[in-house]
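When time allows, look over one protein, given below as sequence and tokens. The question is which stretches look regular and which look disordered:
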Amino acid sequence: MPIAGQDAVDQTPSGEQSRSVTTRRQKLQKLVSFGFSMTAMLVPAALQFVLFAFYARVLGVEQYGIYIALLSWNPICFELVGIGAGEYLIKRSAQDESAFGIARGHMLAAILYTLPVAMALFTFLAYAAVDYRIGLTTILLLCLSEFLGYRLLVCAEQAAISLRRFGMANWFRIAQGVPRLLGVVFAYFVLGLKDVSSLALAGSFAILLGGIGAEIVVRSRLPATKKLEIIPEGLRNGTWFMGNQLVRAGQQNIDRVVLSAVVDPATLALYGAAQRFIQVGILPIQTVLRYTYPHFFKEGKKGIGSALRYGIKVLPLVAGVAAVTAAGLMAAAGFLPLVVGQQYAQSVTYLFYLAPVLVLFAVNYVATDTLSGGGYLSVRTLLTASGVGVQAALFLLFHDGKEIVLASYGGMGITCIVTWLAVFLLARRSKQQG
């Protein structure tokens, strides 16, 4: 016969064991989710790498330099499409899921209204960047397909993230890397098209088809989209979000924008080949930031001090991912000519010395996300824009050989220091006022 209290004694360890099992299961689920998210980021990166190697070998140094010049303004002008409506969708839905349909209606309306402006600006800038080697009609068709298709793909991912459907978001992220590769391969091997204009158009047309497909999936799997109309609040918030993304794109691409105007296509190709690896190296950092970004806004409701504490908490993880990625790129730099050909041997030096700049990017990203979450998006945008201006000036002054590397570190380092200083000063002022 059991003694008094035996049942309670037996049940306590059992309850603790059950909670322990549940905790381990939750940790395992988070690990699997993070692994899938990493995969979703790395698959497009791998496909981009294959496409980069294909372009570099097929086109050669000179033509590949023209291709880089053609698309040098693409990431910057692309951010004009939608006026930051995707980021506004994430913010609005994170605060109130019932607002998803309205915010997404605003997003689609913003895309339609801003697409012509972005196309006109890109066409003008790209036509000058390639020194009129590629026709206006080709550039117009390219930017129409590229901007509309890729924006729909990105917005599909953002729609899933806004509802915390990270699994679906990961699939949309993977889909962003597939269409272009398929289009280029089809054009080259099936249609026999081998010039830079035809291959660029083929990839962009495929992106447009992929974007249309993503929009169909969103409409069938996510809550209904409301009327397509501009929301004043979304326009105000989105403008700052757009400004932030615009200057971030400028931060990552200002080197090629400036260099396309001051160096020959061959030099641009050699540097661009190394920079392509750096762009791939940013993806693991962005994987972590995809999960942390909504939390900055949640913590930011309590003030920038709370957002700063969260930023400091995630900083070691983000910087650690950047450091590991940089080390991997430095170790692999010597193999670059085996991938793209011996004509790109000079790119090894660029890649080896540029790789550690990823750590600066990661540290700066945490600071800028802290500003956004704390309600200082305008400050973030202005600071980053100033940093882009500094980088542009440095690339104009230093663009011979390894001087390009010094310009990269100088611009990013100054931006990083100034941004973190602003974060701490604003947090201190908020604490004193509170």
Observations:
- Residues 6-71 form the longest helix (66 residues).
- Confidence is low (pLDDT under 50) at residues 1-11.
- The CA atoms of residues 69 and 260 lie 6 Å apart.
- The two ends are 63 Å apart (CA to CA).
